[in-house]
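To whoever is on call:

I kicked off a structure prediction for a single chain this morning and the downstream step that reads the tokens threw a length-mismatch warning. I double-checked the sequence; it's 195 residues and nothing unusual in it as far as I can see. Pasting both halves so you can look.
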Amino acid sequence: MARQRQPIVSSLNGVSFPHPAAFWLGALATTIGVVLHLPMYLGAGDMGYRLVGMPVDGPMMIGMFLVVAGLVLCLYGLYPRAADATAGRVSQIRVRALDEAPMRAAHVGLLVVMAIAVTIDVMKPTTLAFVVPGMAQEYGLRSPLNPAGVVPVAYLPLSGIAGTVIGSFLWGWLGDRIGRARPFAARCRTTSGTS
């Protein structure tokens, strides 16, 4: 009787990578894509780092492609090979609180890191209140300070909060389907590649 081969799965601190080569290649592509945006940004130093009206150069176009391709590869690298087969079994797991469990240093560290992450995540929409007037002026968007603009500046905060709502549903659904650690890793990579 032949033994069934187990799929190759790499693990790093509890996050399993069903396709580790795709994940790490995607992480590298995303990082290189972000770095390729820096020359154009740094070159705009004499203009106050304002890129409005500048043509997009070749390295930035390559960087945009690498960010998108890298994110797709990262998501593929994190998605389990047999998600459909395990979804039914995972949905039957029952979890209960361990009220008597001792609080260890790892738990405290996790709580601190999560508190910082939530604070940063909550502050992103709040910072829009500070940057919207400048963006309206820089990009010619319609606002009380720039009534001659065509496109309303209100679309910026609207798209930000819409992305938050859609992302909450998407990452929550994915977390219920394949576990919390992999979608969290994908979300971190997506945020670092698109912020």
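Update from on-call: the warning came from a stale cache, not from the record. Cleared it. Sanity check on the structure: Residues 10-94+102-194 form one domain.
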